[in-house]
Amino acid sequence: MRLYELFSEITEINFEDREVSGVTDNSTKIQKDCVFVCVRGGSFDGHTRAAEAIECGAAAVVTERDLGLERQIIVENSRKCYGELCAAWFGHPERKMKVIGVTGTNGKTTMTNVIKKILTECGHKVGLIGTIQNEIGDEAVHTDNTTPMAYDYMSLLNRMAEENCDTVVMEVSSFGLVQHRIGPTHFDISVFTNLTQDHLDYHGTMEEYYRAKKMLFDISDISVCNTDDEYGRRLYSEITSEKYSFSRKNTADFRADNISLAADGTSFSLSYGDVTADIKMKMTGTFNVENITAAFAVCLKYGIPAEKIISVISGYPGVKGRCEIIPTGRDFTVICDYAHTPDAVENILGSVKEYCRGRLICLFGCGGNRDSKKRPLMAAAAASYADLLIVTSDNPRNEEPEQIIADILEGLKDTDTPYVVVPDRREAIYEVLYLAQKDDIIVLAGKGHEDYQILKNNEHIHFDEREVVAEGLALLNR
After folding, report:
1. Distance between CA 190 and CA 311 in Å, rounded?
2. What is the pLDDT of residues 337-384, one digit of tens each?
3. Which residues contact 434 (CB under 8 A, 6 or more apart)?
4. CATH number of the domain at 93-315, out of 3.40.1190.10, 3.50.4.10, 3.20.20.210, 3.40.109.10?
5. Edge-to-edge strand ranges of the sheet holding 60-63
6. Most C-beta atoms within 10 A of its C-beta, which of 173, 200, 294, 367?
7. Are strands 139-141 and 254-262 parallel, antiparallel or unpaired?
8. Is the dihedral of CA 304, 247, 381, 342 positive or negative?
9. Is the overall model pTM greater than 0.90, yes or no?
């Protein structure tokens, strides 16, 4: 690709054209004839390598200030420019498919997977971008981030377009939005699920967290908002394009009512316009009622007939690690869920509590090197519903598990809920299985789909809670 072509929709260039070998913001990947984009990060500023890039024969360097270099291109926001360049490098694959985005603190994974399932069953080839994995039709593709970095994101979209996907359904993280990872992607339909405390170690305040999420709806044709959520109501009032509300508590364009929960599924009524439909699904939890209601709204606006949507929903088993029942063959139930925020813990435990006939036991920890302020809040949320808590580790990363647990226990000072501290998560699961009685429901919160733990120095060890539960049950049989 020629340099002028690459920048044709971005900015004018005042030096000679030439062939470009690639685009990168990674200083270790600088090569002859590449375009190097100088991005300022938390610990490294790419501008410090701009001169070196020119010396190595780069076709151009993109900077945010005048560095006095021959082949520099000065832009206001180099990170934003990098996303645009990645899109141009791959021939703008984001324009070749319909794109549906889902953002919010909780519910993104379930909702995107349900939407993909419905569209696929209706004959569409769908790409999925999300937390658990990326998918191109039936092919699973590994992911490291909920929203991939800009170059990887556009490369993935390009593969999807080349393999004839007509739609992409994606989780859109706040990081992906403020860091312009999605480049110039425009969304046909976007969903706001909710906003609760998370990622404040990055965003600083809830207001900044909200503003990051709101960016998605400035680039969407149709917006679907959860108006049961305080921030969802605010967002709905601020959107000026086509918009729809969904709720299970208040009047809305799509309203869930008459909810009946059981361990093996949920039924409810879904009203929209002058129509009321009866929904039965294998997933449980009031939060999944919200997810399904929003997914129904998205697919209906996409053009899928209501009866087809309902048919697919009725047979959908749910998403791995989201209120997933782990088989035990015992007279108690074990549920694995990704809940790792106060609101998510409250959602899963509050829903399970409604049909739990024995004790509700919650095993949970908190991630290291993440927002420490939410740790006591998670503990308080768990204590408000559970009859017994097992406090343990999650992904401690470079923090000491004992310090994380100490932060958690601050949230249990004003509660009477009994708790046991077992720092080793494997031993904690063994312990909770030993304590389980008839009709108890055990919720293993925090890991969900993850099959690893992250320890010091980013060491990943294999840790699949389904396997650990099986091991613990085997020990009980000895």
Report:
1. 23
2. 999 889 889 989 998 998 999 999 999 999 999 889 999 999 999 999
3. 472, 476
4. 3.40.1190.10
5. 22-24, 34-37, 60-63, 72-74
6. 294
7. unpaired
8. positive
9. no
